[in-house]
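Entry type: protein chain
Record version: 2
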Amino acid sequence: MRLEKTLNRFSLRKALQTENLIPIALTALGSTLKHLALIHKQRKYRASSYLEVDRLVISIRKIAVAIWICIAFIPTRASAGLFEGVVDALHGFPEWYQDASGLVLEPCLDLTGACGPPDEVPTTFPSPVFYWVAEARMYTYGGKGGNPDATRPGGQATATLRMELMGTFPLDANGDRTPIAGSQLVLQSLQIRIDSLRDQALYTVTTPFGVFADIPANVAFDSNGDRTRNVDSIKETFQLPADPILPGNFDQSAFPTSPYSTASFSFSGMDRFLTCAGGPQASGFLGPVAVILGEPTLLECTIEGSPLGPAFDVFRIEGPEVGGGPLLWAELSGTPFAIGLDPWVAGEPSIDMIETTQFQITGQLGPARPVPALGTGALIVIVALLLLTGQHLKAAPTSKTA
């Protein structure tokens, strides 16, 4: 009786204190085997010893059942999304979010440029706030009119990947997110926008969170066959939760399935905060800042942290003439979208892949917190089965003979 009580207390205590299921299993089973070896060494073949062995075998079986249930039916930490803190009384959003690696970020409210342009950082509440943003841009083959963006030389056509976790508000009747106290919610989204592509061609986009395959490009033409629009040839947004959405929804644990998933990849959301290579800045922010022409400016950096491995720390587009080619030049020439664009040299091969590892990253570090490895459901299952084991052992038969 003393042995099973010791085992039960040991296993239950470890289940409550250990943050990883594997150490729980190893410590519990190790303790059990140690007691079995001790009994065998002492060669005490009394009824009580046989009974102890029988009880220990039952304990092993039930511990194994608990582990099997947790592995088979309870999501692992790597796919469980982000953990949120308590709601802040000032702005009505969670105080922090923690990713699968343990990195904790607070709402980014700094006015020195680390959280983006100071005029876009909220100073009064309620107002939308960002916890994390990672954005990459690169040129595609298109001239003026491809993307009339004042921050890009000549308004040249671009491709943009933007990933973010933001506190915001539900859409109103006009399609706007109007700040209203008490209606706060949190969204994470992955947005892909690519200008100046071949109409109806299929493109594959590689991101730090997976590959989106065979996305069709759509370009508008007039009755003469000339392009009337060259922007957003591809514009896709994957968002959690999807609109319409209710206030107070801060859970980020289940992303919708992407229509461009492949047999080897199914987009399940973003459970990591990408950082610059080398980790967060000494300032407590994720991205480097420099003063350029008297204005604080968030700089680009090489990213790291993809849950899929270093090969996915990139924004890559593959498809017909994404970086330029003779057929795309033939479609653009003679239109406003060719202004400022160098003609394609006859005989030059097309460029069917462009990529970048340079991102602007926004985020403000929060206080370090332990990484929850098991959900509440997993802990309940383990504790319940361990308690049931104790009850069964107490009722085990005592009539064995030596």
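Comment: The first strand starts at residue 83 and ends at 84.
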